[in-house]
UniProtKB/TrEMBL annotation:
Gene3D superfamilies in alphabetical order: Periplasmic binding protein-like II
Identification of the protein by name: ABC transporter substrate-binding protein
Taxon lineage: Bacteria, Bacillati, Bacillota, Bacilli, Bacillales
Keywords: Signal
Signal peptide extent: 1-21
Xref: InterPro entries: Bact_solute-bd_prot1
Length: 546
């Protein structure tokens, strides 16, 4: 009986302690809520809590190697907001890494990847990412004040939710407003000293193009003991090569639509003629084996050595190498010149920022703190956040003159002379580019200096908006998406074969086989999907402008 009585007293004591602990926890929780400022549509939510927190941020590019906390900007942002970032990037194939993470059902806090990637739809359909609009409504309505309505409308899904926010994005309205300032990244480049030594030949015609590559190889067989590479391109992937697709088609001013209907650029006569020109160049020994196998790191190394004579390439992708060449010899840099053109000699229609942007950023359902995550994203896309990531801290990396922010002389000097060192020391000018707003920064940009000014200026006036044509290809697991994937992969196999064909007759045979397989895979389904998406895109663009 005594044992039972003692046990009863013990259990009562435990129960009382548990209730007391629960009360204390509730009081503490209430205290925390009281201490936290209520969210407001007029006040950034991140200011309510600047305690230390670290988010894992996955960036789906194997070349991405930036670190957080090593430069002045990231240190400043952490001191200001309390947020630190642990950057993660894939060691190998990006698609494989994304698919593995999606299959596991567990994702890092933030994910940044190309808007066109199949994984975006998979994450949304699999409910692996959170709706930004719902997070904002619950935790940070300030998001709606700083977010661009046109971008929200563009990325709104059929369920009414928005899961992704883009960087480097421009609505048609933005594009029209800034078109005279907007350059394109798409360029045809030649090594200045070699090009001028050859008499600055016209490379806009098939004959002139092949003739110039041949002359360059004969006159400059080696560069510092290594063979000259007459022509450089973006890397070949399992779905093709952007230099020989959109870049070449844009230089040839091939329309995206005719008579209000989408146009199949792949079968365009001008495009086929120029692909045959590249085939001829290979037959003449002017396409080095390197270009079929090299990935970006190998290409960057060869650009820095000045081993390419010409390149159909994105100018921003070789900025650090261009700077290194300029430091060694200003005449060894790459300059933009008129490249492949159609028979009529029309001006290129080069792509500028589109409404889709370059990459999109999403917040995982596994995010460790929903409140802080959406608040940080709102800060990033706000003018305050954009300015912080562009300029850094006042008095440290920039000062103001007549109310206008300007980099300090020593900071600007390093930016123009050594971008790599600038990134490591200062980290400004969008080293951390995940949510950069390239329109907002236009008034802030310091005047472009050589060796970049000529490349940028050459593209101005040739830049157009392709917003209505973004995201036309189906993604996911639908029948049309599977067909589209098979067609893309078939093109990835076909393109090298076209260039390596021994004759135009063999080229035609390879192209005909591809077109047949394209039909067999279900190209009609893909075309029907593209037509519907084209109509939806125009509706979204109209809604976004309201």
């Amino acid at each position: 009986m005594k044992k039972f009585k003692s046990l009863s007293i013990f259990l009562i004591a435990v129960l009382l302690l548990s209730m007391l602990a629960a009360c204390n926890n509730e009081t503490a929780s209430s205290g925390e809520k009281e201490n936290k400022k209520p969210v407001s549509a007029d006040e950034p939510a991140w200011k309510a809590d600047t305690s230390p927190i670290t988010f894992d941020w996955y960036v789906n590019f194997s070349w991405f190697a930036s670190k957080w906390g090593e430069d002045a900007v990231s240190k400043y942002v952490t001191d200001k907001t309390g947020v630190s970032i642990n950057y993660i990037s894939p060691a190998g194939n990006e698609a494989e890494k994304m698919n593995t993470m999606i299959a596991s059902g567990k994702l890092p806090d933030f994910i940044t990847l190309g808007w066109w990637e199949d994984a975006v739809k998979k994450m949304q359909e699999g409910e692996l990412v959170l709706p930004l609009n719902e997070l904002a409504e619950e935790y940070d309505p300030y998001f709606f004040k700083v977010a661009d309505n046109a971008k929200l409308e563009w990325y709104k899904q059929e369920n009414g939710n928005v899961y992704a926010y883009p960087n480097a994005s421009s609505s048609p309205k933005d594009f029209e407003k800034y078109k005279d300032l907007k350059p394109s990244n798409q360029t045809f480049l030649v090594r200045k000293d070699m090009y001028e030594a050859l008499g600055s030949p016209d490379m806009s015609t098939p004959e002139g193009f092949v003739s110039a590559l041949k002359a360059a190889k004969e006159k400059f067989p080696e560069v510092n003991g290594a063979p000259l590479i007459p022509l450089g391109l973006h890397e070949f992937t399992d779905v093709g090569n952007t230099s020989l697709e959109a870049y070449l088609q844009n230089f040839l001013a091939i329309p995206m639509e005719k008579d209000g209907k989408l146009y199949d650029r792949t079968e365009d006569k001008e495009y086929v003629k120029w692909l045959k020109t590249f085939r001829e160049a290979n037959e003449e020994g002017l396409l080095a084996k390197d270009i079929f196998v090299d990935k970006r790191p190998q290409m960057e190394e060869k650009i820095a050595q000045g081993r390419y004579f010409a390149m159909l390439y994105q100018r921003s992708d070789m900025a650090a190498q261009q700077q290194a060449l300029y430091a060694k010899d200003p005449n060894s840099v790459y300059i933009a010149v008129d490249g492949p053109a159609n028979a009529a000699g029309d001006q290129p229609t080069l792509a500028g920022d589109s409404i889709s942007g370059w990459t999109v950023t999403l917040i995982s359902k596994d995010v460790k703190d929903k409140d802080r995550a959406i608040a940080f994203l709102s800060y990033l896309i706000s003018e305050e956040g954009q300015k912080d990531f562009f300029f850094g801290e006042k008095g440290v990396t920039y000062d103001e003159t007549d109310g206008k922010p300007q980099f300090k002389p020593e900071v600007l000097d390093l930016l123009t002379k050594d971008r790599t060192a600038f990134d490591q020391q200062y980290g400004a000018s969008y080293k951390h580019w995940m949510l950069m707003d390239t329109n907002m920064s236009l008034p802030w940009n310091p005047p472009t200096a050589e060796p970049f000014k000529q490349l940028e200026d050459w593209t101005k006036g040739k830049t157009v908006s392709f917003a209505a044509y973004d995201g036309l290809n189906p993604t996911g697991t639908s029948a049309e998406a599977i067909a589209s994937t098979k067609i893309s992969q078939e093109w990835g196999k076909t393109l090298p074969k076209l260039l390596l064909a021994k004759s135009d007759k063999e080229f035609d045979k390879v192209m005909k086989a591809y077109l047949k397989k394209r039909e067999d895979y279900g190209y009609d389904k893909v075309e029907e999907y593209q037509k519907k998406m084209f109509e939806k895109n125009n509706e979204k663009l109209n809604a976004g402008e309201k």
